[in-house]
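Hi there,

I know you've been waiting on this one. I reran it after we fixed the sequence typo, so this is the corrected version. Both the input and the resulting structure follow.
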Amino acid sequence: MKNKEHLSQEGLEQIRELSSKMNTRRNFVDKYNYLKKSLYLDTNGKTNFSLPEQWLQAFIDGEGLFYNYIYNSTPDIIDIAESERVMYAKNYLHMDSSLEIAQANHDVLILLAIKNFFNGGYLKPKYNVNLISECENSRSVNRFILRDTKKIIKFLDQYPLLTRKYLDYVDWKTIVNLKINGQHKSPEGLELIKKIKAKMNSKRDSN
């Protein structure tokens, strides 16, 4: 347009062709191959591009979610002898805290790069990311899940979030510390954790 080429029929057709392939109309192969090239994906399924810390901070600000899962385990079965088993009826309370980032399957490689940055966590679902056919046939949304709370806290305390998601992080971190201190084992502590959890993420008051 700057060169006035849109004033000719040929130039206008070229603009229409380019526009028809942009944004949500860009095909899966182009999206996947761009990340494969820019993140230097090797044949071992590893990206060889070091994500800048501030970039990752901003990406988590936009795409990350902080979860705290509370659940009871099923009773354990322990072998006493070949002919005898004892079932312990006591249910054990479990708490798992995680940072999770979701992306469309054509962008799974950015999740892989984040996994490499933290040197931990895992992708869900699991498949060979080197094969574009497996990526395309996987779930439409892939997830990176990191449960190493020490790594998460160390990074986000050094690179604080800038949006209201910082409030979710503070609440999440409070719950993690309550668990570390064993307060989830008391009815009062567990109730406090549930109360904090109930106001996080999409449940946070917009005011």
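Quick highlight: The first strand starts at residue 64 and ends at 72.

Best,
R. S.
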